[in-house]
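Example 3.2
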Amino acid sequence: MVQKLETNGDYVNGHDEKSPGDKLNVLVVGAGIGGLLVAIGLRLDGHKVLILEQSPTFGEVGAGLRIPPNSFKILYRWGIDLTYMKKTYSNGNRFLRFDSGETLANMPHGIPEWDFGGCYLMVHRADYHAVLLQRAFDLGVEIRKSSRVDEYDFDAPAVTLQTGERVEGDVIIVADGVQSKARTLFQGHELPPIDTGDISYRILIPGQDVLADPELRDLLSQPWVTSWCGPDAHVIGYPIRGGEIYNVICCCSARSMRDQKFVGDETKLVISDNEELVRRFAGWEPRVRKIVSLAGKDFLKWRLFDLDLVDHWVHPSGKAALLGDAVHPMLPYMASGAAMACEDAAVLRKIFQTATKQNLPAALQRYQKIRQPRASVVQKAGRKLQDAYHLSDGKEQQDRDAWITKDDEKNPIFWGYKARREWLFGHDAENF
């Protein structure tokens, strides 16, 4: 049974009088969404939290992001107020054929607040990050910019910054993203992220431009996540900021694109014009062609990475753990990367309520034991969706289109099957 939204004084006030655990001095590496969430959760229970962020400025690059019910319910309990953040409530997912625009399936969310215990929101990543940052500041989290970690001493535990300064704590939570510098130290061997061969273009189109075209207007006024599925590519669009912006993600196999290439370890580029996108989607239905023609200039091109199952979320010292994309980077197809980081933070918060400095290694191992199986399922589901979205016409595509409308485990869309949808959205990460 899905728990309904309730505020709890222990969560909002940040004092769990029943907790026998120590108040810990926590170092968090990375002030992205995952780092801020774990800092907020731990600070609510009175732990001292310092975030070390390598960037000289706070903020998030990117575009649209989805907050599904499984993370919304945690934000609500923690007093992270999204009331005044510009947002769009999602109707659900709609899948279309690439060349004709024919609807393959509608997957409405119903009433997610009732069915799953929380709202389903579509937001701008930067807006969400700003709300989390303010909540962290309000709770007394210390956040230091221009503080790149150059060395780790996990036995202490401590970090050494690029300035030579040494910073010590009781535990280190590493949330430094898919290109994590610390992950190798946890594994004892190299474990670089794997290039999937797919790239994504993140585009923001002014809502007024979409509304001005009668053929595109419904994409904004009816807030579905619309996905056009085609050979070696798919295009996803949905409104954010209450319709001020139409967020578009074009995911394509790298081999099908002829524009500026990534060099070395580059993970993102700014593309100066939409000429290549116009060429790439010339054979797609009119609305897709219009969308890419509205892309304009200076949008982002991202390289999409994946990662094999990470064996060690906890350092052998028992005094440090990985969180979010540093340990389970998610392909964008499941729209669950930020939500999984939120669940990580929720589990760590709950575990730290009874953790002491003496039992910290066992507590962190429990975190991995709880989170690893679920995160792994979501990771694998994203890989399957990558294949399902990008099928060329033929037998596999026909089978996909036949099963996509059925409430059956053979449905290739993860949340197209009711049992999986409830498992994903109805989950309460704090209930274990």
